[in-house]
Amino acid sequence: MSTETVYSIINKSKSYQFVNNGEPMRGGMKDVYFSPDKTYVVAIFRDKQDFNSVERLKKIVTVYYDSFFNREGGDYYKNIYAWPTDVIEQNGKVGVIVPTYNKNFFFAKGYESFPILKGKEKNGKWFASAKFRTKASKLNLDRKELGNWLGYFQVNVNIARGVKRLHSAGLAHSDLSYNNVLIDPVSKSAAIIDIDGLVVPGLFPPDVIGTADFIAPEVIETKHLSVSDPNRKLPSRLTDLHALAVLIYMYLFYRHPLRGGNFFGNMESDQEEDLLMGSKSLFIEHPTDNSNRNFKREYGDNIKKFHPWTDLNAIPYTIAGPYLKELFDLAFIKGLHNPRERPPAEMWEQALIKTDDLKLKCSNSNCEQEWFIFDNSKVTKCPFCKTKYSNSIPVLDFFYQFKEGVWKPENQRLVVYNNTTFHKWHANKDLIRNERLSDADKKRQGYFTFHNSQWLFVNEHLDSLKDITDDKKIPIGGSIVLTEGKKILFTTKKGGKIATVTITNNN
Fold first, then answer.
1. pTM higher than 0.90 for the full model?
2. What is the pLDDT of residue 490?
3. What angle do CA 411, 413, 415 make, to 5 degrees?
4. What is the mean pLDDT of each run of 10 residues along the chain (507 residues)?
5. H-helix or E-strand containing 331?
6. With contact defined as beta carbons under 8 Å apart, do 201 and 116 qualify?
7. How many helices (H) and strands (E) does the chain have?
8. Which of 331, 362, 387, 337 is nearest to 156 (CA)?
9. Interacting residues of 268 by C-beta distance below 8 A, sequence separation 6+
10. pLDDT at residue 1, rounded to an integer
């Protein structure tokens, strides 16, 4: 039976304690110990760190920490990263102090027949696989801990924002993967971990090439070259963007975008793996090349066991809507072997947010995914359970004023279900929905409701709302009946938008 010993570390003017029961949590490079009150962990590198690595750590906990958090809006990012706060030395080994993750990043209940999962970290890998979802269902994992499809959109928004902030500071994570992301589908939150390996171009090179499944093809293709060879590709902002696209795809479809059925003949498994994920990598849903379009390599004869995620005809990537389809095409077709074509993190963030405005709640109360994205079809069905959507659907297409008297489509729409909310960013083109929004900007301006067999938009705070079709101002507290072809002006302020209404799914 192990006994616990509390050790103290004095680092300059600060003192830290950690509990050693003989069995630390083991990360890829560090042994991790909790403080006695579990408010922070002490993570000690198993291998000796060279001068450059120690200097990197010192910069991360001082200069970069200050630039990320000791500024307006910094508190928001404290929830996005598990960022080290200090560097320590213990018995000649270097370590870092990291605040303990929020409790929502630990399994609350786990499996009834697999209780060891209770209290474990919600490592992103648990939620990126059809195998896990099937296993979880069989072992009675609390369904709430798995979340629903809509929750993963917001999870991905948080990951994209974290990567966006790193890149805007000139940094790269270098090992972005589901092992270095914690997610909670219940609270729809995510945290990026293992910050201590940040890449600073020209100052701190990467220590690792990444995690299998997330390493960019160009890194795999050139890994045989010397680090000093100018043709060698190492982790960077561009390789982060490949990993980010893979993460987003996996959290929405529970499968890997490149790991299909391609085989390359008689060769060693590691050589074949390098081809599959490197020079010969191919999007499994490539529109003109279907050679990688099956899962024989990953699932063998068990493909049907993990249905529908292993059926690319039943659950194609296009069910995520037009904005995300465009970015997946950029990431896995045009940008797969041309890194500069990969969409930046902010594009992913905005595409995910715009897609959220296309959501509908499934009419089947027992649907596991609960929500789906409107696909503009005449007869709307949930792609997961195939249940026909039971209500008519008002769709608002937005236009902005390009110049006096000239309105152009904004490539944004809002799909309406009962109690859909309407916000300032819907009314005004100049307001971007991101982490910098003030509380006042987040306040809803109205809502949609189905009342007495008709759809209404109820005005709560728009002081210049106008029904253009009927040439009528709508006061606060008033409402507009949504009918086919109705035109609405939401505000006369600069950036104000007009929407036209289409009513679909009337069958």
1. yes
2. 97
3. 160
4. 60 82 78 89 90 90 91 85 91 90 78 57 85 64 78 96 94 94 92 90 83 95 91 94 98 94 72 90 95 82 83 95 98 98 98 97 93 92 95 96 90 96 96 91 96 96 97 97 97 95 90
5. none
6. no
7. 14, 21
8. 331
9. none
10. 41
Alpha-carbon distance 108 to 77, whole Å? Answer: 24
What is d(CA 416, CA 169) in angstroms, rounded to the nearest whole number?
A: 38
**DSSP H or E segment with residue 494:** none
Encode 403-413: b = buried (16+ Cβ within 10 Å), e = exposed. eeeeeeeeebb
E strand or H helix at 258: none
345: helix, strand or coil: helix
Q: In whole angstroms, give the CA distance from residue 95 to residue 180.
A: 18
Q: Chain centroid to CA 376: how far?
A: 24
How many other C-beta atoms lie within 10 A of the C-beta of residue 460?
14
Tokens of 216: 């960019």
Token match 């090439």: residue? 209
Report the DSSP pairing between strands 30-34 and 393-403.
unpaired
Give every CB contact of residue 195 below 8 A, 6+ residues apart in sequence.
60, 81, 82, 83, 84, 173
Range 4-38 burial, b when 16+ CB lie within 10 A, else e: eeeeebeeeeeebebbbeeebeeeebbbbbbbeee
| pLDDT at residue number 113 | 42
List b or e across 428-450, with b for residues whose CB sees 16 or more CB atoms inside 10 angstroms.
bbeeebeeeeeeeeeeebbbbeb
